[in-house]
């Protein structure tokens, strides 16, 4: 019987994004919108995209294969695999089953069947639960999260992106999840959904979607605070009555699911607003004290006040985790963990000075979760393997016209059989999986770029 695991957390991270992107400044000009609408209004700088050579299967294969190679991970050391995605290629066959090619010969890896999309709010906590449970078999776990965020031409298109993250999770990790500290908010909402399987494009209720995200931030932050108070009370042997309330400053850094970087900035300010609600006696907040909760979700005075109050802290504690989000766009399920890669690549961490990070994840429909971790060990090997800045800088910036053309390639490829992709393979980096054909039974075949 394996000893109970300690210090469960992240031991390795790999991030994948396509080799081409579009500049949001040029996209503003191409779309004929006001300068700054995408770059300032949304907080986006560039947007990654792929043509018909890449899909969620190929991106997941590339990301996981790269992580296993860079960290010299023995496939036999993996006891569980989870996949999170909102990008569906098949209504029955799971992404996980495609990834099993990397574990040949076939092996028994216990997992929930991932034949429907899993949100980042549930996929990592599921692995943590397994590692903490009697079902744990002594091996590490792997999670792969990725998506291609693509929208029909119009207002939502600049909020797209593409990317994938793989992580190795297990005991004795340098980034340790705080046990028992987790809060979730799940409810039924038509904020973002993909009911039309004949199209890659989602149905999005923009304003309602923003409101849902804000409600999820509020609910998770409040529930996380309550859970933290409960745990502290138990540790201190009190009923919690004498325990002072903790606020936004409990975290050295916070990472968010990032539909846009501007929404993240507003969400960080929103957390301070929740601290105010818990202790509204400060006279600086007098004019905000009587605003009811529903009105506060869209109230510009609330938003402006707390964004101003958090401006400096946002730059120090949140901005370092937004490099991938602003330069690649939305990766849906991968976004918050790509944020972790950004943070590690931007801030120098030392085992002698542990840092606490909060993580807020969100999935459409909706499911959200907030949890936390401490960076307590040496992460220099992770930073070196990520090589994030060099990889982002080496991408090819294509024109908005080229981006539109690639969107049309994907439209044409969707649901096709007896199909060979038209995208060029010369632009792919070595080690990238890519689609070669879809046969007459919709079976998809891939090769690896030499």
From TrEMBL:
The active site is at residues 86, 257. GO terms for biological process: acetyl-CoA metabolic process; ergosterol biosynthetic process; farnesyl diphosphate biosynthetic process, mevalonate pathway. Keywords: Transferase. Pfam families: HMG_CoA_synt_C, HMG_CoA_synt_N. InterPro entries: HMG_CoA_synt_C_dom, HMG_CoA_synth_N, HMG_CoA_synthase_euk, Thiolase-like. Residues 4-174 form the Hydroxymethylglutaryl-coenzyme A synthase N-terminal domain. CoA binds at residues 209, 262, 266. GO terms for molecular function: hydroxymethylglutaryl-CoA synthase activity. Transmembrane segments: none annotated. The keyword Membrane does not apply. It is an enzyme of class 2 (transferase). Its EC number is 2.3.3.10. CDD domains: init_cond_enzymes. Residues 175-449 form the Hydroxymethylglutaryl-coenzyme A synthase C-terminal domain. It comes from the Eukaryota. It catalyses: acetoacetyl-CoA + acetyl-CoA + H2O = (3S)-3-hydroxy-3-methylglutaryl-CoA + CoA + H(+). Catalyzes the condensation of acetyl-CoA with acetoacetyl-CoA to form HMG-CoA. Belongs to the thiolase-like superfamily. HMG-CoA synthase family. This is Hydroxymethylglutaryl-CoA synthase. It comes from Penicillium hetheringtonii.
């Amino acid at each position: 019987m394996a000893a109970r695991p300690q210090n469960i957390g992240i031991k390795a991270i790999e991030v994948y994004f396509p080799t081409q992107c579009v500049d949001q400044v040029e996209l503003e000009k191409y779309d004929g919108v006001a300068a700054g609408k995408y770059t300032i209004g949304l907080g986006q700088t560039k947007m990654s995209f792929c043509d018909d050579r890449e899909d969620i299967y190929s991106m997941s294969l590339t990301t996981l294969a790269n992580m296993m190679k860079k960290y010299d991970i023995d496939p036999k050391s993996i006891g569980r695999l989870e996949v999170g995605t909102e990008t569906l290629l098949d209504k029955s066959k799971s992404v996980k089953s495609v990834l099993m090619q990397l574990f040949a010969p076939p092996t028994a890896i216990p997992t929930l069947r991932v034949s429907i999309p899993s949100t980042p709010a549930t996929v990592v906590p599921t692995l943590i639960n397994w590692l903490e449970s009697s079902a744990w078999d002594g091996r590490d776990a792997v999670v792969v999260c990725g998506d291609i965020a693509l929208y029909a031409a119009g207002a939502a298109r600049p909020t797209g992106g593409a990317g994938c993250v793989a992580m190795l999770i297990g005991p004795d990790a340098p980034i340790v999840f705080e046990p028992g500290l987790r809060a979730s908010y799940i409810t039924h909402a038509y904020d973002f959904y993909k009911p039309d399987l004949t199209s890659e494009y989602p149905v999005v209720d923009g304003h309602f979607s923003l409101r849902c995200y804000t409600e999820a931030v509020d609910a998770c932050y409040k529930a996380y605070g309550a859970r933290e108070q409960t745990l502290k009370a138990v540790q201190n042997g009190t009923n919690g009555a004498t325990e002072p309330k903790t606020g936004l400053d409990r975290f050295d850094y916070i990472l968010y699911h990032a539909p846009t970087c501007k929404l993240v900035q507003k969400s960080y300010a929103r957390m301070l607003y929740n601290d105010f609600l818990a202790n509204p006696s400060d006279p600086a907040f007098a004019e905000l004290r009587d605003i009811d909760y529903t009105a506060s979700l869209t109230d510009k005075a609330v938003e402006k006040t707390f964004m101003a109050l958090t401006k400096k802290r946002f730059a120090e504690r949140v901005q370092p985790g937004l490099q991938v989000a602003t330069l690649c766009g939305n990766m849906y399920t991968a976004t918050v963990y790509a944020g972790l890669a950004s943070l590690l690549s931007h801030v120098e961490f030392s085992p002698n000075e542990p840092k606490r990070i909060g993580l807020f994840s969100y999935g459409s429909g909706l499911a959200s979760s907030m949890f936390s971790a401490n960076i307590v060990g040496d992460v220099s090997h992770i930073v070196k393997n990520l090589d994030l800045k060099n990889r982002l800088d080496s991408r090819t910036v294509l024109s908005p016209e080229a981006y539109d053309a690639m969107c049309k390639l994907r439209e044409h490829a969707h649901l096709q059989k007896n199909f060979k992709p038209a995208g060029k393979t010369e632009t792919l980096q070595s080690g990238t999986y890519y689609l070669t054909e879809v046969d007459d039974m919709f079976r998809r075949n891939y090769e690896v770029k030499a």
